[in-house]
Amino acid sequence: xxVENYFLIILAFxxxxxxxMQDFRKREVANxxxxxxxxxxxxxxxxxxxxxxxxxxxxxGLIGFGIFFLLANLFYYGRVFAGGDAKLLMALGSxxxxxxxxxxxxxxxxxFLILLLFCGSVxxxxxxxxxxxxxxxxxxxxxxxxFSKNKKIFYVFVIFSILVFIFVMFVKVYLFLWxxxxxxxxxxxxxxxxxxxxxxxxxxxxxxxLTIGDWLYEKVKVGRKTIKPNWEGLNEEELAILxxxxxxxxxxxxxxxxxxxxxxxxxxxxxxxxxxSLIF
Length: 280
Known about the structure:
The structure is a single chain. With about 280 residues, the chain is mainly alpha-helical. The protein has ten helices and five strands, in the order ααααααααββββαβα. Strands 1-5-2 form a three-stranded antiparallel β-sheet. Helix 1 packs antiparallel against helix 10, helix 3 (about 55-75) packs antiparallel against helix 4 and helix 7 (about 150-170) packs antiparallel against helix 8. The chain is flat and about 65 Å long.
């Protein structure tokens, strides 16, 4: 671990921690936070590069930002990440190149992404279980409703699971038994996720309390204007229209994902400090 990276580690930790606080309080991460992390990290890298006459320290920061910029857009338009999470990922791209070796930095990127997705999955499951317990009556009712509503999906996946199981036993490639199990579990996970969304994540708020990026649960008509739900959330124009009405609006809240960034980042740093091999 280069001594020059200590500042970047502390910087990233503080910024991610603030992002977590914002995410839990407002269900959003401010643009100024993400963009300031990019600016400070790159400015610091430029200063170190000039001081030590080694431009690679700055160039790798730019390369990291570029790679994570592409990944963030892929995750955003693939509807994996919300806007704030995608921008935080971009910002961390300028921080994570901790090595002066290009291939070691690629290794760090891959390891962080694996950690992020793994931690996100575990954290999301735990968070949803807590939500379902806190709203257990509404959740059980909604789960039963979604189960009845999606019976055809269950039948289709069960049939496919059985067919895959028979095929695997016939060809004796037992590794693919996992695929059969995934097919069997998928409809339960789908119904579980829908029940969590409908029973635990729909909130009624006053129009004056709406913010840019909020997700509408259903279309809202204000005068002659009809505002429809979309993945990018409310924009400034839509927000201005909605604030003219006095009625309450149903919005859909997501699970705050920023804690996954914090956990993945801390595990990454711990692994590097201990000197463990990352992937290769």
